[in-house]
Amino acid sequence: MDIDIGAGIGASRPQPGPSGRRRKLRALYAAGTVAAVATTAGAVALAGSASAASTLRAAAEAQSRYMGTELTGNMVNNSTITNLAGTQFDMVTPGNEMKWDTTEPSNGSYNFGPGDGIVNFAQSHNMRVRGHNLVWHSQLPGWVSSLPLSQVKGVMESHITTEVTHYKGKIYAWDVVNEPLNEDGSYRQDVFYNAFGGGEAYIADAIKTAHAADPNAKLYLNDYNIEGENSKSNAMYTLAQQLLQQGVPLGGIGLESHFIVGQVPSSMQANMQRFAALGLDVAVTELDDRIPLPASSGNLQQQATDYGNIVKWCLSVSRCVGVSQWGVGDADSWIPGTFSGYGAATMYDSNYQPKPAYNSTLTAWGGSSSGGGGGGGGGGSTGALHAVGAGKCLDDPNSTTTLGTQQQIYTCNGAANQTWTHNSSNELTL
Asked: Does the bond joining 294 to the residue before it have cis omega, within 30 degrees of 0?
């Protein structure tokens, strides 16, 4: 029986029924492809058997979370990287392609080509995009810093409006203001801070401007060393409270999470929870966990523990929406070039083979590490059928066998009425 998987979206959710009944989705799913299904449901992917979770993305999606990565520059031209990224991750953050020095190198002259390349890659691999970033004191063209302060407000608003409008409908979330705080919790006194007369005024204006350009994008503040409870995260918490009290449409807090192995703060979960209690989403946005080189087996195991704990803490906080690693593997990580004597900071080694941290991360999401952690189109034949763009699953209401029953897209829950098998007869059975 053919099933219209676009039907029932937004409908009320019937209670799951008996799990022993079977339905078949014939001739819509060709082995190794999802093209036919994608035409009716947007982006769809079958998570394979050993697999409702033999990949990071499938395991995270089954928890209604995402597992992301960062891509930049020529990484999108490296088939090893793109195959791995497209298979294992379902969220991508452009490393540099959406920053001001790339998008508006001279006043009023915009260059969206590099960012468009990342977005196109993401869309072709059924990945969402976190826009990074709109306002930051670093990677800022000199012409902006040289402006008379009286002109900065208008230029900032114009830049935000132009970039957010260009990508409207293509960006899941924006890091609107990046790294606004010093280590002691005070504001960075950059050109934007000074132009608005200090305080949170420029931050509020930036978020409001971005919201006006794309009301559906989630709008974040993003910073480092705010992962645990400390003076800097306390200041971010106060800032978030102030913005919300003013009616500013702040949607989330990004915890960058650039760690040293074994030094992940034990208060990270509690810190996530207090931001969530404000009604904000929380995301781990730039995760890596650097190790003194050469990496010892003990440190690799500690890194695995660190990664696993972070995912578990995210799962324990209902408003933690996902975890993104900064880079795909050790070969493209920024760490060795920035922190002398350190490296091996990601889940994949310099040959893009999975490390212990990969297995611990997959297991923490609820998956099975038997899939090997690589790219490619393998995997098993039983699992959830994901509407990737929506972050939901194909759901058979009440596991019914009634002829003509419409299927629906609903929150992934791992129930029997969301567990599909692709068999040798080219059918999907439930």
From this structure: yes
Strand pairing partners for 427? 26
Q: Which two tokens stand for residue 175?
A: 């890091």
Q: What is the DSSP letter of 90?
A: S
Structure tokens at 198: 């200090």
94-125 confidence digits (pLDDT tens): 999 999 999 999 999 999 999 999 999 999 99
Architecture of domain 62-371 in this structure = Alpha-Beta Barrel (3.20)
Domain borders along the chain are 24-46+381-429, 62-371
Asked if 286 is an active-site residue, the reply is yes
Q: Both tokens of residue 289? A: 């966990």
* 334: number of Cβ within 10 Å: 17
In sequence order, what are the residues at sequence separation of 6 or more whose Cβ sits closer than 8 angstroms to the Cβ of residue 171?
Answer: 119, 129, 130, 131, 164, 214, 217
Q: What is the value of pTM for the model shown? A: 0.77
Active site residue 179: yes
Bond from prior residue into 309 cis (ω within 30 degrees of 0)? no
What are the residues whose beta carbons fall under 8 Å from the beta carbon of 300, sequence distance 6 or more?
291, 344, 355, 356, 357
Residues 201-219 pLDDT 10s: 999 999 999 999 999 999 9
SS3 124: helix
Tokens of 200: 């949170």
Instruction: Report percent pLDDT > 90 for the chain.
Output: 72
Catalytic residue among 70, 97, 163, 286: 286
In the set 104, 179, 200, 227, the catalytic residue is 179
DSSP 8-state class, residue 188: P
Cβ atoms within 10 Å, residue 196: 19
Banded pLDDT at 16 (limits 50, 70, 90): very low
